[in-house]
Write a structure and sequence with these properties.
- With 281 residues, this protein is an alpha+beta fold.
- It has four helices and twelve strands; from the N terminus they run αββββββααββββββα.
- An eight-stranded antiparallel β-barrel has the order 1-4-5-7-8-9-10-12.
- A hairpin with a 2-residue loop joins β9 and β10.
- α1 runs antiparallel to α4.
- The protein is elongated.
Amino acid sequence: MTDCGRRHEYRARPANLRRSAVAILLPLAMLALGACQSRMAVHAPPPPPPQPPSAGERFRIDAERSEVLILVYRDGPLAALGPNHVIAVRRLSGEVLAAGDPANSTVRLDFPVDALSVDEPQLRAALGPDFQSTLGATDIAGTREHMLGERLLDAARFPSVHLQSTAVRGEGDALRVTLRVVVRDHEAQLELPVTVQRSGDDLIASGEFDVTHAQLGLTPYSVALGALRVAERMQVRYRLVARRLSAAASARGLQHQQRRSLGSLDQRMVPPIEAARQVLR
């Protein structure tokens, strides 16, 4: 073979080798990619399945028609010198799943701490003789500033309160709901009675219960070495109105959850795809 022929053969070999390598690596890369996809499909969280109508109906809290009041009482030897206070929860949000079996029902509630109002005159007037004293704007602003301050709710660091049911059971004509409550960085379990009514597309839940500062991880305000202080026990009165979600709205919520799950799966697929591209280069 001439020198020219040898040089031509040597030039041809790298190209042939590259084509052979691609022919071998391409099926292997596709098999590897398929194996990665199969393994990921096993471990990736599946999208939530559609819930049949029998699973329950979904309702959304109507903040404008709902009312949650927290009654805070004075205590101590000098209690007569201080007023009782009424705190109202504003901008409440959340959803309720009402199932035929109460054990399958759930409730979720949230509200921003800085939306709490203090001693609204119309609320005090409606609460009877324990709240009939007149409070000036300066007194009300001072009480609210202390409530949101670092020593109590610390709204700057913990801007919201979260409530989530962990158990629901029937109790005669009412329900007994166990709630996980997160206030500041403290988590508590509260059990409360709930009376439920249905009026058209509205679900109305009402009741009252006592809760202590200690249960919520809080320390009551006090002055004069405790001679005038806030009582440890508070009373909560509530009436929640929730509006039934349309089937279309429920479906949109389910589709949103599914898209989030699929988006997460797509992100997990990026590394094996990029690896296959590197092999084929």
